[in-house]
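If your schedule permits, I should be very grateful for your opinion on a structural question. Thank you for your consideration; the sequence and its tokens are set out here:

===
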Amino acid sequence: MVHDEHNRSKKGGSFFLVIFGALLLIIAPTIYPGDQTLGVLSFVSGFIIGGLGFYIRFIKKTSRN
């Protein structure tokens, strides 16, 4: 069908990773103000998770075409 590609459900897992990583980046310094190790660990993991979601959502999609 002509609109078969348009009607497919989009996978939202990568978008969730981007949002979750951004939330960790923003909230990480305020969650663990007393323990700097956990704050830095959550900050770095937010950066990695967000970067992975960004790669899956935008970069990998354009390299397939």
Summary: The first helix runs from residue 4 to 7.
